[in-house]
Design goal:
It comes from Malus domestica. This protein is mainly alpha-helical. Helix content is about 75%, strand content about 0%. The protein has two domains: about 30 residues; about 140 residues, Butyryl-CoA Dehydrogenase, subunit A, domain 3, CATH 1.20.140.40. Helix 4 packs antiparallel against helix 7.
Length: about 180
């Protein structure tokens, strides 16, 4: 009986290793990150998110400027999606509407700063880039504070979306430190 169990286990392991090694166990190949992008993303607190947002849009060897432009664009897209959700809200209490208004204004300011950081990249103004990106992080925190001070209020999007926004903003700031 023990011999049969061992053989069954061996067959299961063999089939599993064949599936995983031949790629049949996944729908798409795992993208390969080039060494330059890996080095850039290693400087962030969220290297997996960094690589996964930049890799699909990076053409050629990665450099901090192109990586930052792509990461800012990813952050900007998420921020605009969040803003669209705020604008759909209605029928809330006065207190909740006040929170929505604070968060909407903060997210609009964050969009302005992301656009300003993009303009500063073109101008090679590292100080302005970092100031603008720091502002984005601050605006997100201000909205978080407003939500925390409004018991029972829930943002109109998933908590994971807010976390991803914070991580993208943090990645942008970290990548900006690599600019010369």
């Amino acid at each position: 009986m023990e011999l049969i169990n061992s053989r069954i286990l061996l067959v299961i392991i063999s089939i599993s290793s064949l599936l995983f090694s031949s790629g049949q166990g996944s729908s798409a190949p795992i993208p390969q990150v080039d060494a330059a992008l890996e080095k850039i993303c290693a400087k962030t607190d969220n290297p997996v998110l960094c690589s996964s947002t930049i890799l699909p849009f990076e053409h050629g060897a990665a450099d901090p400027i192109s990586a930052l432009q792509i990461e800012i664009k990813a952050c900007l897209n998420r921020m605009q999606q969040a803003l669209a959700q705020f604008k759909k809200l209605g029928g809330l209490s006065a207190s909740d509407m006040s929170t929505v208004q604070v968060c909407q204004e903060e997210y609009e300011s964050a969009v302005d700063d992301l656009n300003g950081a993009t303009d500063a990249i073109v101008a090679h103004d590292v100080g302005t880039i970092q100031t603008r990106l720091s502002g984005v992080i601050t605006y997100l925190g201000t909205c978080d504070d407003a939500v925390a001070e409004s018991p029972g209020f829930k943002l109109p999007f998933k908590d994971e979306d807010v976390v991803t926004l914070r991580k993208l903003a943090s990645n942008c700031m970290a990548i900006s430190t690599l600019l010369h």
